[in-house]
Fold this sequence. Notes:
Elements: E1 7-10, E2 23-26, E3 41-47, E4 53-60, E5 64-65, E6 80-82
Parallel strand pairs: 5-6
Antiparallel strand pairs: 1-2, 1-6, 2-3, 3-4
Amino acid sequence: xxxxxxxxxxxxxxxxxxxxPVRIKVVGEPVSIAGLYHSGKVTVVTVTKDGREIRxxxxxxxxxxxxxxxxxxxxxxxGYVLEDT
Length: 85
């Protein structure tokens, strides 16, 4: 369940090795249109190393994952995974 305040980290390997993965924080409730497949969006902000929240935007809910592996056990390569809190 996606809730405001949750922090996710990027699964992409496109970041600079010293910077680490991009972190985002959910700041809004998920919104979707009933009956329209893949219409769910959620508002997020990028979290910098010093904790500032920048770049507010909406992303698809399907990009946020609870685990770093797929249901088949393969590692995910795209999207964001929920960080342990």
